[in-house]
């Protein structure tokens, strides 16, 4: 089974999916990413799907699950590089990609994560230390 | 064509594993390009084929996929048959409802695949397996 490499760039993990993933590869990526988020303390995950010529319901669900797992681990996920034909097909398939942030490319994705972290830091300061406990599992 | 697929006759791919679903996607892409489908239509039919090939694997434990180019005199298209000897589908109307699943997925495979193609024919009965034929025509 192929594995998708995960790169660390500063505070962000970058996953560039370059293969036509089998379902097993997609599930392995979910698990690898969760481990890397915790191991590196990263606050952002960018998943680049520029090379994917389709996103079916399985991969769509994987992207949603990764976004949810990341959120629980205090990291934000942005999916970047979706091809127009893939976007059209996803909508017609009925997949809404709930909870997933998207950006046109890696650069914009990084800006998005940076901007949100800045907002979060500000919020924490405003709400005081008690705000942390409400978000704990 | 680079894949060596003979387009003059139907091409068959068995589905017995995850990797076979990937092979079905690649085969369908090759034939959809040869049938001169637009990029969006290629993407739609490959996505539909991915959903249906996975269903064959998940619900029936495997089956076969047959891909061919068809011609109705005016347009070319791609036709794909998914056949299995699995348990079949008891309530077809329910199975074609968005969000309904017995396999732990999103319940979009069958209903979504139907939306992505021009023709969708399904023959199934409990204990009789399932045969689904989809067709996508070039515009």
List keywords for this structure.
heterodimer; A: alpha/beta; Transcription Regulator spoIIAA; five-stranded mixed sheet; 53% helix; B: 139 residues; alpha+beta; five-stranded antiparallel sheet; 4 helices; 27% strand
Protein described:
The complex is a heterodimer of chains A (137) and B (139). Chain A is an alpha/beta fold and 137 residues long. Chain A has one domain (6-127): STAS domain (Transcription Regulator spoIIAA), CATH 3.30.750. Chain A has five helices and five strands, in the order ββαβαβαβαα. Chain A has helices spanning 23-40, 57-72, 84-93, 106-127, 130-135, and strands at 6-9, 12-16, 44-48, 76-80, 101-103. Chain A has a five-stranded mixed beta sheet, with helices on both faces. By secondary structure, chain B is α+β, with helices and mostly antiparallel strands. Chain B has a single domain (11-137), classed as 2-Layer Sandwich (Heat Shock Protein 90). Helices cover 37% and strands 27% of the residues of chain B. Chain B has four helices and five strands. In chain B, strands 1-2-3-5-4 form a five-stranded antiparallel beta sheet, covered by helices on one side. In chain B, a hairpin with a 5-residue loop joins strand 4 (119-124) and strand 5 (130-137). Chain B is globular. The mean pLDDT of chain B is 92. The interface between A and B is medium-sized, with 24 and 27 residues. Chain B: Residues 40-139 form the Histidine kinase/HSP90-like ATPase domain. Chain B: This is Anti-sigma regulatory factor. Chain B: InterPro entries: HATPase_C_sf, HATPase_dom. Chain B: Pfam families: HATPase_c. Chain A: It comes from Micromonospora qiuiae. Chain A: It holds the Pfam family STAS.
Largest sheet of chain A: 5 strands, mixed
Determine the number of helices of chain A (DSSP H or I, runs of at least 4 residues). Answer: 5
CATH class of chain B: Alpha Beta
CATH architecture of chain B: 2-Layer Sandwich
According to CATH, the homologous superfamily of chain B is: Histidine kinase-like ATPase, C-terminal domain
Shape of chain A: globular
**Content of β-strand of chain B:** 25-35%
Here the CATH topology of chain A equals Transcription Regulator spoIIAA
Number of strands of chain A: 5
Distance between the termini of chain A: 34 Å
Strand neighbour order, sheet with most strands of chain B: 1-2-3-5-4
Helical content of chain A (DSSP H or I, runs of 4+): 40-55%
Q: What's the alpha carbon Rg of chain A, rounded to whole Å? A: 15 Å
- Quaternary organisation: heterodimer
According to DSSP, the number of beta strands of chain B is 5
Radius of gyration of chain B, whole Å: 14 Å
Termini gap of chain B: 21 Å
Question: What structural class is derived from the secondary structure elements of chain B?
Answer: alpha+beta
Low-confidence stretches of chain A: 127-137
InterPro entries (chain A): Bact_StressResp_Reg (IPR051932), STAS_dom (IPR002645), STAS_dom_sf (IPR036513)
Organism (chain A): Micromonospora qiuiae
Protein name (chain A): Anti-sigma factor antagonist
Organism (chain B): Micromonospora qiuiae
